[in-house]
Protein: Amine oxidase
Organism: Mycena belliarum
Amino acid sequence: GPALPRARSAAEHDTTVLILGGGVSGIIAARTLHEQGIDRFLIVEAHKELGGRMRSGQFGKEGRRSIIEHGANWIQGTQEGDGPANPILTLARKHGVKTAESDFYTSIATYGETGAEDYLPVLEKAIAVYTNVTVLAGKRVSTNQVDLSARTGYSLTGTKPKTPQEMVSEYYVFDWEYAQTPEQTSLIASSWVNNFTFDTDQGGFSEDNLLSVDQRGFKHLIQAEGQEFLKPEQIMLNATVRTIAHSNNSVTVTLANGTILSADYAITTFSLGVLQNDDVLFEPTLPVWKQEAIQSVTMATYTKIFLQFKDKFWFDTQFALYADKTRGRYPVWQGLDLEGFLPGSGIIFATVTGDYAERIEALSDAQVQAELLEVLGKMFPGTKIPKPTAFFFPRWFSDPLFRGSYSNWPAGFASPSQANLRANVGPRLWFAGEATSPKYFGFLHGAYFEGLDIGARVAKCVNNASTCASLPFTESVPNGSPYTVA
Ligand SMILES: Cc1cc2nc3c(=O)[nH]c(=O)nc-3n(C[C@H](O)[C@H](O)[C@H](O)COP(=O)(O)OP(=O)(O)OC[C@H]3O[C@@H](n4cnc5c(N)ncnc54)[C@H](O)[C@@H]3O)c2cc1C
């Protein structure tokens, strides 16, 4: 690389690129540097292993344990014919990850507060209505109209869910994906990310979803990919970053244990939640345009709550809905004790999102377990619900390495804000991760493409200063038209 002044005698480690965070984005950024002939990089990761939000763990009573996914679980959008493939699918195939087809809309049972009841027609209507909402969003993009909330979009297409059955059906199609309510979500951004992933007419991969049931964990695909090129000296685990100082010439990172690392460039891949909560401090503080972009997006929470029982007493479908009077109260259930999934495991899990997910993180495990057993009692009124043999849920929202599960745009989405979230700050400090992805934020493939693109940009800077270019940013994001009073 270009010769740079090195005033970094205090640094214990000196490298060309510091990759901060060892999730999908960090590992793919590292691979991109490696492919460009740059092997002087160091991945700095707080956890004991690589993978980030691809995190799995043992679950179940002794002698009857399975690996379950605390975080990402699906390849969302796969491939249609020889159209574009989701790169996560490509990695899963390459590393032989075991998956099962997830039939969101065809393998589903429906329940209410008094047991099984058939409201599949209501669900079908919710699916059709959501398509109308995304079409409305697409029109607004092509005519350059202001963003609205997805709730406004629903209302304008003539839908106002009122009954528990209508609410849970809408929840399943909407909140279960974005991890927040339509009120909390941008109409344009949510439709955008949906279309680019699932709609082949918009360049999306496919409508299909594959669920990892691999007993090495879904993370195997990214860990195995890393193993193909990473050398031990390029990885620093159990290393928590506290401060990132940067100048026109270099970056200096200080770890929680006092270790100082220095480099020509840094790529931070920490979650939006980490950046929002000052878990990592920047010196000098980030410019106002960057702070505004970071604080303009929401870190949403998606929480899976796992139960294991001695005997299976529930549905034989992959999914079940539970319609409660309170919208978002333990609405979606998944059975894993199924052929092709984890047969014989005795595992079932519920998902909650958004504010409800934050709410349960503040409760004790015993309280949450009691609530779930009460709901199961309502879903299966003829069954005496036994005590589970195991119970667990991850607390993503309170975890200082994540502070939620993935990003979601509130109403008022503006492309310059998105560009600002992604832009480098000064010549040395770069940003990647699911949240910075313009087309696929929230998804594994978003994290992947950001690692690829930002890695390639930094590689240019390292290899040939004349091809090194900053990403565009807007100092002050303006309103579309001037505000007028009276
Ligand atoms: C519950 C849940 C379900 C999901 N389901 C899906 C799904 O089914 N399909 C899908 O496509 N996507 C899903 N996602 C989203 C997907 O997991 C993410 O988009 C993706 O993993 C993000 O990768 P990343 O590299 O951007 O960030 P991360 O994976 O968060 O990587 C960043 C790394 O930085 C580390 N770190 C944080 N702070 C510090 C610090 N101070 N010092 C050092 N290291 C630090 C973290 O430990 C982490 O390893 C889900 C996410 C969650 C949480």
